[in-house]
What we know:
By secondary structure, the protein is α+β, with helices and mostly antiparallel strands. It has one domain: Chorismate synthase, AroC fold (4-Layer Sandwich). Helices cover 28% and strands 22% of the residues. The protein is built from nine helices and 18 strands. The strands form six sheets. Strands 1-2-3-7-4 form a five-stranded antiparallel sheet, with helices on one face. Strands 9-8-10-16-11 form a five-stranded antiparallel sheet. A two-stranded antiparallel ribbon has the order 5-6. The two termini are 35 Å apart. Residues 57, 105-107, 123, 126-128, 247-249, 311, 313-315, 338-339, 342, 345-346, 349 line the site of flavin mononucleotide.
Amino acid sequence: MAGNSFGKAFVVTTAGESHGPGNVVIVDGCPPGISLTVEDLMVDLERRRPGQSKLVTQRAESDTPEILSGVFEGKTTGTSIAILVRNEDQKSRDYASIKDRYRPGHADYTFDAKYGFRDYRGGGRSSARETVARVAAGVIAKKILAEAFGGEVLCYTKQVGPIIAEVDPGSVTLEQIEKLPSGEPNAVRCPDPVAAEKMALLIAEVRKDQDSIGGVAEVVARNIPPGLGEPAFDKLKADLGKALFSLPAVLGVEYGIGFGAATLRGSQNNDIFVMSGEGEARKVVTETNRHGGLLGGISSGMPIVFRAAIKPTSSLPREQRTVTQSGEETTISTRGRHDPCLLPRFAPMAEAMFAIVLVDHYLRHRGQLGLGRV
Ligand SMILES: Cc1cc2nc3c(=O)[nH]c(=O)nc-3n(C[C@H](O)[C@H](O)[C@H](O)COP(=O)(O)O)c2cc1C
């Protein structure tokens, strides 16, 4: 009943809150023999970590994971993997003054309405702190994708406020997402350097105004073989959509041409099938990719491209009207440490959820192959 597990063949279960002792993930169904070290996990945990640039929250967490089980001599054993990431910088005092007031845009009121009791410190289980556990599981999933068929998942900032980046999802690289051409870290994780600079300026500007700004993240999965996805309820588009919607602050999800399909005619929208490559590598592809790599909810072999609309951070240092738990009207300003724009830290979370879904469907697909097909 409770929604703390995700997946059917590659099952990820998380536990943990923003200001508790730590966050845990248990990964069940990971094939044996995948190399896995703390250093592997650190790569994406570091990309997700707070305090990495001036544009994000300054909460100081080292996010060093501890692998508790399922790995022996640097390789997965095939048994359940448990990973713990301790919370180190839980300044609960930052939140004491707002424990009875409902923060606009947060889950305080809805948690009270549901449970009648809530951990008010930093949003408890509704906080994005919880995603640290998913990112650790995502590292394992990415390794499986890479080892099984050279699959890769990348996410980047496509839009901040009115600034839209020009990016080709078919060829964008991790290097472009993480670094500017100058070699400096790409603080907004936008691979279009001209847009990235404008975005960074805009984020700095809204922070000065004690405000925040929303945007759009784009996720691409490449080298994914055709055939992943289960009709009818577990279509790949349905599970990838759920994966993105399960992340905090996501208000919209589309794939391929998405809402743009509404204004097209069929003759303009259809992607034409053609043959590509020679010999054993000869395969069916489409000339264009308005279908976003999914037909009938099953992967077509073309890049799978999704976009997620992310809301502007709700916590603001400026005063806003609200109500208390006992129904009195009052005001609130949030003095904790917050991201003025959520996009820069969103990328590793979306990549993790995408990779988890793709591995789940890959493992399920192997069980669905007809007899005689391997
Ligand atoms: C990377 C990331 C960091 C976040 N950090 C904050 C934050 O510092 N302050 C805040 O108000 N919301 C933050 N959020 C969003 C809230 O967790 C989220 O809006 C809130 O729990 C309500 O959930 P909902 O927006 O999905 O309805 C963050 C979200 C993400 C993805």
